[in-house]
Amino acid sequence: MTHTSQLPTAPSTRAEELTRAAADFGHVVSTRPWGVLTPRTVRDVQDVIAFAGPRGRPVSARGGGYSLYGQGQADGGFVLDMGALNRVDCTPGERTLVAEAGALWRDVVRAALAEHLTPPVLTDHLGSSVGGVLSTGGIGTSSHHHGLVSDAVASLDVVTGTGELVTCSPDLHPGLFDAVLAGLGQCALIVRATLRLTPAPERVRRYRLYHQSPESFFADQHRLVRDRRFSHLDGQVRPALHHTWHYMIEAVVPHRTGHLPLDDDLLIGDLGHVRDTVEIEDVSYGAHLHRLDRAERILRVTGEWQRPHPWLTLLLPARTAPAFVAEVLADSAQNDLRTSGVVQLHPLLGGRLHTPLLRRPSGELLHVFSLMRTAPPANPSAVRRSVAANRAVYERARELGGVVHPVSALPMTCEDWRRHFGNTWDVLARAKDRHDPYRILTRGPGLWP
Ligand SMILES: Cc1cc2nc3c(=O)[nH]c(=O)nc-3n(C[C@H](O)[C@H](O)[C@H](O)COP(=O)(O)OP(=O)(O)OC[C@H]3O[C@@H](n4cnc5c(N)ncnc54)[C@H](O)[C@@H]3O)c2cc1C
After folding, report:
1. Which residues line ligand 1 (CB under 6 A)?
2. For residue 314, how many C-alpha atoms fall within 13 Å in the half-sphere facing its CB?
3. Mind listing the pLDDT tens digit for each residue in 42-61?
4. What three-state secondary structure class fits 171?
5. Could you tell me the distance, in angstroms and rounded to a whole number, from the CA of residue 25 to the centre of ligand 1?
6. Could you tell me where the DSSP H helices lie in 97-197?
7. Distance (Å, rounded) from C-alpha 104 to C-alpha 87?
8. In this predicted structure, what is the pLDDT of residue 6?
9. Nearest CA to ligand 1 atom 23
10. How far is the CA of 257 from the centre of ligand 1 (A)?
């Protein structure tokens, strides 16, 4: 344990830094910290936490800042801008990579691809930090094969709420390891992660398969997630004329060197999409991983990237998903999704997700359902309406066995969190008492009274 009554450096209280730390990608909630610190070493992280604990000052880490609802803010406390802790070292012989928590996934991808390796699962957007994604689990389009981003973690170095630096893994302090992955920063801050990598393909073939009916879309998603013929599976629901929706599956398969060329008929010939609208594209694997970069650049230019994003992501059991999705999309409270949003819908296999604190519905076949809307600028009442709509959709999903992915713009009470974590709640609460006795870490999600 470290004992310090001094901060490593004076926190910045400059207005622009406090304003930045009081904002995130969601632009829905905003709370100002007392100060912002930029740790340059793990020791700096330890010193800040050891200083803040006995004084009861909240501490939150900020990585990429892509939280949706203030999860990384620290009202009246310290925000640790992790950006300077960004070293990435790949050891190709062992197929592992050590990343500091402030490194962005695009830095991880660059270092891994240079050695023809890749993390087995990545989130869609590569601008988030290693610490930010591992503390929420990270669902990707290859999760039906390889589980969560956090399932590929071999070990972690973390700093607990008393300032203690601990290395943990499935064999070393496994209780702390399990409390940190998808643990929403409650028991410790991640400073370094060792990630397992797999060989990266050079090129992939990407199919966009448009479906005329939700029935054929769901039937194909269920078939494809089970037979796992594609390495990556995604889906979108797009607005169409006369208040209807189009359903599209995006499926990706690697070109394997030394194997026969890909046979489109074998891969998609038995599926139910509309034949003459299929889009087929060969791209490098790197370009596929960076597929959102172009959209991000455009949205930054149009200003939509900087607007409020009251997003909601749910995990749904496959048995209730089709009716529930239809009900949500027909709801007039969701009309804004037609003009300024993206609806993502892709399948998962529950048995592939191993991180205990990532809660999921019961049953093997699941769907990730994301309502990713952009609110108009300077219109707080529109944002409030979207957040209220999120809450209504969440409550309805919960009745039907659904679970929130806690990277959402969703007000949650302590009782909601207790219900969310279910039979893992007591384990998390005990780990919190033990590792963050002052209850200073990551108050943004609001788990505790
Ligand atoms: C465009 C976009 C696409 C996305 N796509 C996906 C997706 O495909 N799959 C998916 O699962 N999620 C997705 N997300 C959600 C995103 O992965 C999470 O919100 C993630 O937590 C963001 O990490 P960050 O570093 O950018 O955010 P931050 O706001 O910096 O951090 C997020 C949370 O993690 C905590 N944290 C940050 N660093 C650490 C640390 N070192 N130790 C402990 N806690 C820490 C913060 O305090 C905060 O609570 C997406 C979000 C956006 C905006």
Report:
1. 24-25, 60-67, 71-72, 82, 101, 123-125, 128-129, 131-133, 135-136, 138-140, 185, 189-190, 407, 442, 444
2. 26
3. 999 999 999 999 999 999 99
4. coil
5. 10
6. 105-113, 130-134, 143-146, 174-180
7. 10
8. 83
9. 132
10. 35
Place of tokens 């494809």: 224
Q: What is the mean pLDDT of the chain?
A: 96
Sign of CA dihedral 280, 284, 286, 290: negative
Q: CB of 250 within 8 A of CB of 235?
A: yes
* Each residue's pLDDT tens digit, 247-303: 999 999 999 877 888 999 999 999 999 999 999 999 999 999 999 999 999 999 999
Distance 197 CA to ligand 1 centre (A): 20
Residue of the CA atom closest to atom 37 of ligand 1: 132
Burial status of residue 243 (CB atoms within 10 A of its CB: 0-12, 13-18, 19 or more): exposed
Query: Are 285 and 203 in contact, with CB atoms under 8 Å apart?
Result: yes
Q: In the chain, what are the domains?
A: 84-199 (3.30.465.10), 203-404 (3.40.462.10)
Compute how many other C-beta atoms are within 10 angstroms of the C-beta atom of residue 13: 12
